[in-house]
Each structure stands twice: as C-alpha cells, then as structure tokens.
Design a protein that fits this description.
Chorismate Mutase Domain, subunit A, mainly alpha, about 0% strand
C-alpha cells in the first residue's frame, strides 16, 4: 500500500514511533557508554564481569516499574536480559584486554559528550 493511501492517523503514529525508536537507540548508546566504563573499572579492580546481586535487584526494580507503566513485566525482563547479556559480553572483552596487557595504565576520563 502506498503511503499516500495510508490513513493520516497511521502516518502520524508511525512518525511518533520512529521518533521513539530513535530516542531508544540514543538512550542505549548512552547506557553502553556508562556500562563500558563500569567494565573498565571492574577490569582494573579485578572484579567479575557479572554481578548477580545487582542483577536480582534490577530485575525486581524494573519489574515494578514495568507493571506501573502498563508494560508486560515478562517482556521488560526479556529486554533487560538481552541488554545485560551484551553488557556482560563487553565486560568480558574488556577484562580480557586488560589481562592480556592490550589495555593498561590509567583509565581514560569518561567522555559523556562523545
């Protein structure tokens, strides 16, 4: 179906959905900047990539937020699990780089504007 044949309300909704999708991508990019830094700090401090206690706390917190927001908590948990799996993968890679000597010395300053 051509866009010109689409009802106006659907086109408006799609524009809003596109804006939300863009915002989500930007939010995820910012989140991964922060978690990359956490991974560096964990590697320097010889801490494990995963923190099960923190994960349990976050699951409980986000399940409550999802419920209050009218979002299926199971979906919220699956989405969180997907993101956390990627974060842990990054932390493992960063830890390996430090262990192998490919990264060393002082941590670079966190650049929240890059």
């Amino acid at each position: 179906m051509a866009e010109s044949d689409m009802p106006g309300e659907i086109l408006e909704l799609r524009r809003s959905i596109d804006n939300i999708d863009a915002a989500l991508v930007h939010l995820l990019a910012e989140r991964f900047k922060m978690t990359r830094r956490v991974g560096q700090l964990k590697a320097v401090g010889n801490l494990p990539p995963a923190d099960p206690t923190r994960e349990d706390q976050q699951i409980a917190r986000l399940t409550g937020i999802a419920t209050e927001a009218g979002l299926d908590p199971k979906f919220a948990e699956a989405f969180r699990a997907f993101i956390v799996a990627e974060v842990i993968r990054h932390h493992e890679l960063i830890a390996a780089e430090y262990a192998e000597g490919r990264r060393q010395g002082e941590l670079p300053p966190l650049d929240t504007y890059s």
